[in-house]
Amino acid sequence: MFTDQLGTLTDRELEALCVPLRECLSTKTGPVDLTVLSNLDARRFDQAPVYDAEKGHLLGIVETTFLRELYEAREPLAADDPAVCNDTHMFHIGCFVSIDQILEKMSERRAVFVIRGSSATEHGYVEWNYGLLTISDLNRQPLRAALYALLAELESGMAVLVDSAFSDPWAWVKTLAEEHQVRILGYCELTRRRNLDVGPIAATTLAQLIQVVSKNQELLQKLGYRSRTEYDRQTGSIPNLRNCVMHPVRPLVLGQEDVKLIRSTVASVQDLYSRVQKLTARGPCEGMRTA
Description:
The chain is of the alpha/beta class.
């Protein structure tokens, strides 16, 4: 299984993922402020935090489009409007928050307030507000780093699995495309010339390791897959996620459909790693070494 740290975000990482409320462009209940609406449009913000004009406390989130509709209809933003005061705007978490929890919540809402309850004090129960989290914020480095850690752990496990399953590396290298064979064998020759012998497994990528397993029926059966089709269906999106994670300037998320896809892929990563770990923990694949 993954360690406690993998697949979760620390307090510092969560703070870096969210936008502090003090930095958010917000609005108040009552008549819609045209200046606020214009600023939201100019900065292409889809939503804004809403504060009670009288009491000053945070109420919820309002969509920019809804705020514009109210302005055009000359209607005020009410404190009890269900479009604003909605429990789904609040993302309450415990001491830890997992990638899956974040992705699940953001597949339902485009923006939420991330709040963690802390222990009671003499002044009452205190909540720690991390700030506003939007779909756009999922492209920030903290989530990308957490995803990378998951994928790196899977890649390491897959490397151990393939390396221990074949007594002759050529048996698995030859199942790859010729251009990949050339790169892998060329890397091995280069390292030997530099007085290093790390083996061909060191030159593989996660996508190649997934492909090697896909073409070995015995490995598939040992991992618990009923067919290559089932395996390919469950692992097919993993290489693309890894490629996106490895490009720091390429957006991971453009919309809620992307959030759902990443969440599904993360579940596949965790499932595959769990199967690999169970198999490799028994030793060198229990006699599975293939000539």
